[in-house]
Amino acid sequence: MADDEGMTSGVAEDHGVSYAKGQLYDQDFVGDVNHLKFDVSTSFFDGFVLMNRPASLFFTSGVALIASSSSAWVDQNGNGLNDNLSSGSPEAQGVRYVCVLTDPDLSQTGGGGAVFLSDPSMFMNGMLGSEGNGQFAKALIEFLLPDGGMIVIDDSVHDPPLPSSPLRKAAYGVAMFTTDINMKIVVGTLVTVALLSIAYLYNPLERPEHVCLLDRSGVAELAEPELAPEDSNEARKVLLDRVRLLHGLSVEAFSRASWEELDGLIGDKELSAFARSGRYDGTMEDIMEEVGRWQRK
Amino acid sequence: MAEEVRNYTLRAMAYAASSLTLLVLSLVLSSELLLVGSLVIGAIMLLSLTTLPGRPRVTAEMDRTQVFEEETVRVDMVIDSRGSWGNIEVFHRLSPNLELDKGSNLALLPPGRSRHSFVVKAPLRGYHPTGPTLVRRWDPLWLWYRESASGEPQNLTVFPAMHQGRQGTVKVSQNLHRPGEMKVKRIGSGKEFHSIRGYTTTDPFNTINWKAFARTGKLQVNQYETETVTDVMFFIDARLVGRVGLMTDNPVERSIRLCASLSSALLNMSNRVGLVVYGRSVNVTKPKGGPGALQSILHILTDITPSGQDTLGSSVTYALSYLSPNCPILILSSLAEDPTVKEAVRQLVGRGHPTLVVSPSGVDFERMLYSDVTVPKYLLKKLSRENLLMELGSMGARVVDWHPGKDVQWALLEVWE
User: Fold this and answer.
1) pLDDT at residue B182, as a whole number
2) Any alpha helices (H) in chain A, and if so which ranges?
3) Interface of B with A in 327-366 (CB under 8 A)
């Protein structure tokens, strides 16, 4: 099992194996710190193998086939620095395992074991010729199948699926998966230029323009065009003033009039009732129209 | 000289982005062609940047600085700059209360000596600032510019429109006094011809009627009617509530236009005119006549800004000491939202002042904004206003209810007897 997507975690768990988070670093490397060289000494192989950015494994059953030196450490926080040396921390230096042959208890479901590798690229075409990778693969197969048999290589499941069109593939690959730092700078520069251009588009310069404000308008008394119940008192005052003025009475003389005299001055039963109590059988609009039509009889 | 502000355009951004993109791609793809393209674009940008025209001198002159409402003013601009490359953009600032009638106050011109003119219409009285001129110097490709202001702000004085109307005396009451010029059919030193009489040694030579002398052979002199002179006091409502309706047509503006027209006519007849303007405060101008009086009154009217809520009552109380005995009073007010109107008019009439109330109907100005639809509140306010006008009439004041549909000419006909 060689998995860099975490899709075999369930099977690994059944075999008592788990993957440690973070890249493994060791003092033995070829070219750069990403290519680690491991000294392998097993019953079926004795030599060196090369791995590219391996992770590390924990296991509870079986035996380790490939282990690191005692100076290896796991970059758990991904900053490329060995900055947590406290005992028990994943970044503390110590032996780590990258290839394990398990011997699980599978009596309920079957039997047998599995070999788990923490770096699937070890057996890639480009890596088979490095160090003793090819020999190790051959020896491992011979060890696992001493009497020969069928070998099935399942390389069918990948996640996420790659984009379909060539253009999208290229863009996606350059932006997301490239390891070329120069290409990342190029992409970053172009994206920055594009973002600046877009930002400027949303704040373009404008030519000055004469603004004329003469079409403004204002309201005061009709700011609230509808009549409200609280306008009833003003409506009564309008009615009484109209009656008083059209009868040619002074305020004092009109104030001295009794209710009966007022009814006589108005000469309309409904308007009289409105003048007395503010109540009217109809809307406020109706009463105002009625007041407007009222004439001295 | 004012400091220049530098700025760039979207086009400059596009040029820079193209140049940078080509440069990066040329390095990535090892393409000399792309590198040449990048350098050419960059060179064009730099070349354009170095060919800005010289800072121009701009003069802007109005053909008149004092006009009446609805009149136009021509603004002539002369732009003089050094250099032959690049572009000049000028924008002459105008008050938002001015309209562009012909042309534009924004112009794009080549470097060198150029002229640009436009015509401004002044629909609203006031002191309207114009200028300074905003000048932008552009490179030939419109990538960059430098901006500065040129010249000093000027004021365009727009006096309220005046209407001639029919000359006569102001009808302030049905049967009371008649202010303004009053021909009393007595011999005096007026301008209207009265009769001819024989010459005496004390008569000035310029009164001799030479035609009559030729006809009769005796020296005859003209005699003229005498005229009395009256003070007329205007109370102008400049409260904020009078600004209902449109900016150019509302009770305050109508009142001011009517006041200007009446003042002109009254002053022409050798009367004296005083003003009481109330709104944010009460300002009294004592009655004055003679040369310069109309100009002074027009300036006061031009400077009125509707604001505040002082009442007619408080302004009458304040101005009482400035009122000549029995002088006619003209109140120009919408009378809206002023509970002191009745008491103020009663006070004026009681003191013997013939009082004329010309009231532009504020509630009808507001109704026009509702597309002349009769909203419910209108009925109430209209009836309330009718009652008030009726009551003022019953106190002895003459009342003119001025509907927005009637123009100043109509109001003048109503006012003049």
Assistant:
1) 45
2) 9-14, 125-128, 133-144, 166-172, 181-201, 232-246, 251-255, 259-266, 269-277, 284-293
3) 336-337, 362-363, 366
**From CA A39, how far away is CA A50, in angstroms rounded?**
9
* pTM for this entry: 0.65
Q: Nearest-CA residue of chain A relative to B144?
A: A205
Tell me the H-state helices in B208-311: 210-216, 251-268, 293-302
**Angstrom distance (rounded) from CA B30 to CA B245:** 71
Interface of A with B in 174-203 (CB under 8 A): 182-183, 186, 189-190, 193-194, 196-197, 200-201
Q: Which of A204, A216, A220 is nearest residue B10 as measured by Cβ atoms?
A: A204
Question: Which residues on B lie below 8 Å from A226 (Cβ)?
Answer: 375-377
Sign of the CA dihedral with B21 first, then B22, B26, and B29 last: positive
Instruction: Report CB contact under 8 Å: B246, A291.
Output: no
A222–B366: do the CB atoms touch at under 8 Å?
yes
With both helix axes pointing from N to C terminus, report the angle between A269-277 and A232-246 in degrees, rounded to the nearest 10: 120
Residue B379 touches partner A, C-beta closer than 8 Å: yes
Residue of B nearest to A206 (CA): B9
The answer to which of A11-20, B298-307, B381-390 has the lowest mean pLDDT is A11-20
pLDDT, mean over chain A: 82
With tokens 């302004």, the residue in question is: B315
Residues 6+ apart with CB under 8 A from B378: A222, A225, B363, B366, B367, B370
Tell whether B245 is within 8 A of chain A (Cβ).
yes
Residue B354 to chain A, least CA–CA distance (Å): 21
Instruction: State the SS3 of A127-166.
Output: HHCCCCHHHHHHHHHHHHCCCCCCCCCCCCCCCCCCCCCH
User: What phi and psi, each to the nearest 5 degrees, are found at residue B162?
Assistant: -120, 140
**Among A72-81, B13-22, B387-396, which range has the highest average pLDDT?**
B387-396
Q: What is the pLDDT of residues B273-304, one digit of tens each?
A: 999 999 999 999 999 987 889 999 999 999 99
Record the tokens describing residue B181, joined without a space: 């010029």
Q: Nearest CB to A217: which of B21, B369, B380?
A: B369
Q: How many C-alpha atoms does B105 have within 13 Å on its Cβ side? A: 29
Please report, rounded to a whole number, the percentage of residues in chain A having pLDDT higher than 70.
84
CA–centroid distance for B409 within its chain: 18
Helices and strands per DSSP (H, E), number in chain A: 10, 10
| Chain A positions in Cβ-Cβ contact with residue B305 (cut-off 8 Å) | none
Tokens (6 digits) for A208: 């000055």
Contact A222 B98 (CB under 8 A): no
Q: Tell me the C-alpha distance between B417 and B167, whole Å.
A: 9
SS3 B81: coil
> Does ipTM come in above 0.95?
no
Tell me the nearest-neighbour CA distance from A168 into chain B, angstroms.
19
How far apart are the C-alpha atoms of B67 and A244, rounded to whole Å?
A: 49
Q: Which residue has the tokens 């509140």?
A: B377
CA Rg value for chain B: 32
CA distance B333 to B389: 12
Q: How would you class A76 by CB atoms within 10 Å of its CB: exposed for 0-12, middle for 13-18, buried for 19 or more?
A: middle
Long-range pairs of A183-192 with CB within 8 A, sequence gap ≥ 24:
A183/B28, A186/B24, A186/B25, A186/B28, A189/B20, A189/B24, A190/B21, A190/B24
CA distances from A99 to A5, A74, B373 (A): 17, 16, 91
Tell me the C-alpha distance between B123 and B146, whole Å.
Answer: 34
What angle, 0 to 180 degrees and rounded to 10, lies between the N-to-C axes of helices A284-293 and A232-246?
Answer: 10
